[in-house]
């Protein structure tokens, strides 16, 4: 691995703000922080800074559902309407359809139709969005987009419903369920679904760009507290703990873990989707598993390359494409 070339490539990237980590067989071979966590107070990002990861948190929702399956409280072919009352979704939509974005249900934020997530909060204030149930009024708008199981269509609302199902079956708030069944088990002590108007220490503010090039925080552009479809805060170390815990069966049974990681649905080209996780397949098998997220002021990418023993995580607090960075780095991995 050409570490010098990798470092040169990263250092040439302008305006990236965040942290980057590259590990090989668990050993750190590159790790560095860039930019500011708080621009106004010139507080720099550091290796232990906590960042939001937007949709990267869908993996936590999938793990939560899988945990309930392991406990015999839920089945992947369970019908959604047995747990959540939404008249505008088909009777045969299953948990698996939600996990694999094949449900066809109406989405409160369809990324193929809307480019700016902040547009959602023009009429419904983001500070009201604190729990999965707060999204129900948005989920009741619209009709089925296509027949159940017909195709893959990325759906944020599906993972909001999955969080509601976790709450219904477990009797716990979704964020508390994740804390107990993932964070505490893996000692992910720095991670949490923090309220962005009450962030704990060493968190990075997310920054988005105004039309005149100045920067503002994303506090009015995303839900005040994350949930089933995204919004958790993590550190580099905690993401690494999550990968290790998942892949070494510390969270779920082997059978359920293998199902989560299986190529459940074809997306396009060499891309597949499991349960809350993206998969790239090459001729000789899985090239990488990855999770990714993007919100106003948030850009995140984390990947594991099983045949190479490599783990790469990029956490960003500006709208700079971490996807482009990781694609550049893959040339040298």
Tally the helices. 9
Shape: globular
Estimated helix fraction:
25-40%
Low-confidence stretches: none
Q: How would you write the strand order of the largest sheet?
A: 2-1-14-13-12-11-10-9
Structural class: alpha+beta
Largest sheet: 8 strands, antiparallel
Provide mean pLDDT, rounded. 90
The SSE order reads: HEEEEEHHHHHEEEHHEEEEEEH
Question: How would you describe this protein?
Answer:
This protein is an alpha+beta fold and 333 residues long. The chain has one domain (3-329): DD-peptidase/beta-lactamase superfamily (Beta-lactamase). The protein is 25% helix and 20% strand. The strands form 4 sheets. The chain has an 8-stranded antiparallel β-sheet, with helices on both faces. A two-stranded antiparallel sheet has the order 3-4. α2 runs parallel beside α5 and α2 (58-70) packs across α6 (174-183). The longest helix has 15 residues, at 156-170. The termini are close together. The model has no long low-confidence stretch (mean pLDDT 90).
